[in-house]
Amino acid sequence: MARIRKFVAYRRLKRPYTRTSKFKSKSYIRMTPHPKVVRFNTGDASKEFDCTLNLLSKADLNIRDNALESARQTSNKLLESYLGLNGFHLKVSVYPYHVLREHSLAAGAGADRFSSGMAHPFGKPIGVAARVHKGQTIFQIRVDKQNLGVAKQALERASKKLPCSCTIQVFQKK
């Protein structure tokens, strides 16, 4: 199986090329890949917590679903090991719905004949991504006041897995 392409090719938030055809079946994407994010809510959602921490994006970009799942797993592992299952609530606030398409090119000898001449190739679906804008919340963690440092560390670890720089915003109940 081929490796996934570097995300630099899909990072920008631009309107994707939409094919319009006189044949109706060619005007839409037939298959949408399933997002790799396993859970969007983990921990105790019903409990009232003192503090809420948000991981905010500093740029407009797409975030691929495997990056979201990787960030969720690292933060969830840290939170579960220190706080247990009932000591926090982690929520993935964005949903990967944007279908990424790739026009696969032939590699090797004589590949120049295949790769030229297509200005806007429609491509085949290879994955999905979440469209994130500047200042939008990507992850949200709710914890008690004494566990604030662990939650900050979990969000810092999650931000290392994402293709953008992020800030952490803290809200406390009074």
Can you describe this structure?
The protein has 174 residues and is α+β, with helices and mostly antiparallel strands. It has a domain of 121 residues: Aldehyde Oxidoreductase, domain 3, CATH 3.90.1170. It contains three helices and eight strands. The strands form two sheets. Strands 1-4-7-2-8 form a five-stranded antiparallel beta sheet, covered by helices on one side. Strands 3-6-5 form a three-stranded antiparallel beta sheet. Helix 1 packs antiparallel against helix 3. The longest helix is centred in the middle third of the chain and has 19 residues. It is elongated. The model has no long low-confidence stretch (mean pLDDT 86).
Would you kindly provide a brief summary of this structure?
By secondary structure, the chain is of the alpha+beta class. It contains three helices and eight strands; from the N terminus they run E-E-E-H-E-E-H-E-E-H-E. The strands form two sheets. It has a five-stranded antiparallel β-sheet, with helices on one face.
Please supply descriptive tags for the structure shown above:
3-stranded antiparallel sheet; single chain; elongated; alpha+beta; 174 residues; Aldehyde Oxidoreductase, domain 3; 27% strand
